[in-house]
Amino acid sequence: ERVFTGDQVLRVNVRSEEDLQLLRAMETQEEWELDFWLHPVSTELPVDIRVPRSSLSSVKEYLQAHAIPFTVVIENMQEVLDEEKAEMEMNRM
Amino acid sequence: QERSTRSFNFGAYHPLETIYSWMDTLVAQYPQLVTKEEIGRSYENRPMYVLKFSTGGTKRPAIWIDTGIHAREWVSQATGVWTANKIASEYTTDASLTSLLNTMDIYMLILTNPDGYAYTHTNDRMWRKTRSRTSGSACRGVDPNRNWDAGFGGPGASKSPCSDSYHGPSAHSEIEVKNVVNLIKSHGNFKSFISVHAYSQLLMYPYGYSCRAVPHQQELDSIGRVAVEKLAVLYGTKYKVGSICNIIYQASGGSIDWSYDVGIKYSFAFELRDTGRFGFILPANQIIPTASETWQALKYIMGYVRDHPY
To answer: CA–CA separation, B206 vs B260, rounded Å?
Structure first.
């Protein structure tokens, strides 16, 4: 079973076309294995990205280097999934 | 096994087998209204069941609702279960729904991507696609909402089998998509096609494969705007309304583009909650609020379809 320990979900509030271009460039970085929950499409919509633990520092450095502000909406995905799983097991009982 | 729909926990996420078993319970409880029909099998040979809500007649004008074409969007399948129960239990008590079902049928496909859904429970909670194999690639799965014969292979779909938005080798290559296409075509009298996704709170109409306006853009837009007003009454949840291309991004091969292009005018896609705080792991305590508010919008759209035959 795939685990997501240390994976985070980052939210970027896009401010400009330049931000959009930089975020789109991230989509092509295959080695980061990013999972875009909300893609960079307009300045009106935020961008949500699930970032594997192994890519976290690179991704955060990239965003900081380009002064793109972001927040962490899920600190550790596996914790949230463990809670979900525990709840499902309780329900089943 | 669940013995009654009253003992079923609609506020919880359930595995595929539990939902399939619950369908039998629903049919047993409302035999005059609900039937379960197998429309085909998935790539991994799981049955695909639609729930048909009908008070009689043959090939009456009908409304299609599918949930969970993207496996990990769990609140959409859970909303489908709640909604099916709502339709069955409120027939004869809800005047609008009753008048609808006296003239039209509703078809619901709750597990539109059964292999993917099972996979999210056993192997990878974040899986989105089908589980089909692609020759020459180690990566599995096709995005079933890029696989319809509507601008297939165009912008907003990937040709890489490893991508989450891989369009597949050809239009309708995915048996899960083909099964739906066959049913809709052989029936021939669907008037509305509604696909339910999650998240980000959007109500969309065609097109996704093109950014040009569809001929019924104004009508679809105004239906959508009223529907999201109704939805917001319960909890104030804010939705955006627009064409797929204009409010999310250009995406080819989508189901509602196909349905619209085959003549089903009232084609819509929902993106249910949430706001991004939980994404695809929306806590189970939000299932019923999500389903309840969505029901307000669905009822409005379905009532509109009933009152505007074409």
So the answer is: 7
